[in-house]
């Protein structure tokens, strides 16, 4: 019984981690790919050219998805804190 709680808690933590990181990582990956293709086509090899657009898109994604991410994290934390007695005993 106790091990079931640990497995479900671990699975839930991994699920929350993926859900919270995806809105930031996927746009950065797409922009990085597009900038890389642009750099390869134009033979411009400037490091800041790939960094600045990725940083900008991550900031925009954080502004757009931030409230949802915060709500998800608060919900998970609240559920975790409320279930501490069940996890202990």
Blueprint (SSEs and pairs):
Blueprint: H1 2-42, H2 47-82, H3 84-88
Can you describe what's shown?
This protein has 89 residues and is mostly helical. It is 92% helix and 0% strand. It has helices at 2-42, 47-82, 84-88. α1 packs antiparallel against α2. The longest helix is centred in the first third of the chain and has 41 residues, at 2-42. The protein is elongated and about 60 Å long. It starts with a helix and ends with a helix.
In short:
The chain has 89 residues and is an all-alpha fold.
Could you give a short account of the major beta sheet?
A: none
> Proportion of β residues?
under 5%
Tell me the series of helices and strands, N- to C-terminal.
Answer: HHH
As residue ranges, the low-confidence spans are none
Separate helix tally: 3
Average pLDDT number: 88
Q: What descriptors fit this protein?
A:
single chain, 89 residues, mainly alpha, 92% helix, elongated
């Amino acid at each position: 019984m106790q091990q079931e709680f640990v497995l479900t808690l671990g699975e839930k933590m991994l699920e929350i981690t993926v859900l919270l990181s995806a809105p930031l990582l996927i746009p950065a990956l797409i922009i990085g790919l597009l900038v890389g293709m642009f750099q390869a086509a134009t033979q411009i090899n400037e490091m800041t050219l790939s960094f600045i657009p990725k940083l900008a898109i991550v900031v925009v994604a954080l502004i757009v998805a931030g409230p949802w991410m915060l709500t998800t994290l608060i919900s998970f934390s609240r559920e975790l804190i409320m279930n501490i007695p069940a996890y202990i005993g």
